[in-house]
Amino acid sequence: MKEMPVTIKRSIELLGLFLIGAILVIGKIVIMPLLMSFFISIMLLPVYRLFRRRKFPDALAVFFPILLIIIVVALVVWLFYNQTSFLLHDYPQIEKNLTTHLNALSLWVSQVFNFSPTEQLKFIKDQSNKFLSYAAGILSGAAGSATGTLLFFGLLPIYTYLLIMYRSIFMKFILMCFEPKDHRNIEQVMQQIEKMGKKYLLGLLIQLGYITVLLWVMLAIFGIKHALLIGIIFAFLNLIPYLGALLGNILGALITLASSERVVDILFVLGAITVVQFLDNNILMPRIVGSQVKLNPLISIIGIFIAGSMTGVSGMFLALPILAVLKIIFDRTEQFKKWGVLLGDDSAAKKPMRFPGYAATKKISS
Fold first, then answer.
1. 361 vs 188, 239, 358, CA distance in Å?
2. Residue 220 burial by CB count (10 A; 0-12/13-18/19+): exposed, middle or buried?
3. Nearest of 144, 158, 147 to residue 36 by alpha carbon
4. Most buried by CB count within 10 Å: which residue of 106, 201, 232, 329?
5. Whole-number Å distance between alpha carbons of 292 and 271
6. How many beta carbons lie within 10 A of that of residue 114, not counting itself?
7. Is there a single domain that holds both residue 53 and residue 155?
8. Does residue 139 belong to any structural domain of this protein?
9. What is the pLDDT of residue 161?
């Protein structure tokens, strides 16, 4: 049988990628919690196996780890709500501080740009009217967004329970889709995915804890108000790779600006966040997570933007673990190995044209 041309093969692969993206966009309300539950179930498997070794019934051995996660999440939500209440309690002081900063900004604009306070007020009023015209559209979608969020978190425990309970059936189905000679390779892929998923997600949970504590302690030393709230917000936003840290810096600066009369406190906050980020990226996180799968930073950033535009915040959070799973699969599949090379970060390969296939082709042609 004549082999299919390379251009047709690549066209089919790209068409497959497009169809997968379309399915994700159409069914994201159901698919995204399923993907999230897949990684949560991987993280909970050791706890489930511990309960099974203690002779717990299968249903209870699945239920108790999920209950533990729900309790931890409830405590975090309570802590965030508590800290937010403290911030709102200082509203009179926040209003005073904002007025002081806005007056100083207005004076600076008048001196530098020769833009009078009256003109500034007119400009602000015009922009406020434009903003209000968009507000109706934003609020009209708030109900649907809230419903989607409730559905997302409502499906998580259900999906996680069923994935752990019936994992043997799913594994059997996957094996039956391939030839027996490929079963060993598939088992190794599943083991590597499980190992990567556990280390990555457990690392993120540990990261949440030490970033919150480190930032809280450092800001408290400098006397920054609402230090714990800033630490919690930055730690959770930092879960979104690359973009989350930028948003965390901005929100930390805004909270400090609202709660302090001194502009220098913003520098303390940004400096503390920079130190924590340096420790996290270069010392702590590499030791906790390790180098299970090295991803190309450019492809990672593109993947985060694409996933965010298609499925929202949950897609941005899941982009890296999904790319890591795809790289593990591609590296062990001869047909898609080139995609694994594209996703990878093989910085040691200084001369990219030196690989076996190219060398053999060059030798034959000469």
1. 31, 45, 5
2. middle
3. 158
4. 232
5. 31
6. 8
7. yes
8. no
9. 93
> What is the distance between the alpha carbons of residues 50 and 38, in angstroms, rounded to a whole number?
19
Domain identity same for 300 and 287: no
Could you list the residue range(s) of the whole structural domain that residue 301 is in? 293-366
Place of tokens 């009023």: 125
Measured CA distances, 90 to 25, 59, 143, 187 (Å): 42, 47, 29, 57
Please report the pLDDT score of residue 366 as a whole number: 42
Residues 297 and 287 in one domain: no
What confidence tens digit (pLDDT) does each residue in 229-262 have? 889 999 888 887 777 888 888 888 888 877 777 7
Check: CB of residue 39 under 8 Å from CB of residue 314.
Answer: no
Tokens of 344: 């990878």
Residue 327 within a domain: yes
> Identity (one letter) of the amino acid at 194?
E
Number of folded domains that form the chain = 3
Q: Looking at per-residue confidence, does 314 or 362 come out higher?
A: 314
Say yes or no: 260 and 302 in one domain.
no
Check whether residue 31 and residue 161 sit in a common domain.
Answer: yes
Q: Please give the pLDDT value at position 159.
A: 93
d(CA 304, CA 298): 10
Domain boundary among 235, 270, 291: 291
Q: Chain-centre distance of CA 213, in angstroms?
A: 20
Are 100 and 215 in a shared domain? Answer: no
- Is residue 14 a part of any domain in this protein? no
CA dist., res. 235 & res. 229, Å (int): 10
Q: Residue 276 has which token pair? A: 């924590």
How confident is the model over 292-302, as pLDDT tens digits?
A: 567 778 888 88
**pLDDT one-digit tens code per residue, 266-294:** 888 888 888 888 887 777 766 665 555 67
Measured CA to CA in angstroms, residue 333 lies from 100, 299, 300, 337 at distances of: 62, 20, 21, 6
* Cα–Cα distance measured from residue 331 to residue 296, given in angstroms and rounded to the nearest whole number: 14
Same domain flag for 214 and 262? yes
Asked if 41 and 158 sit in the same domain, the reply is yes
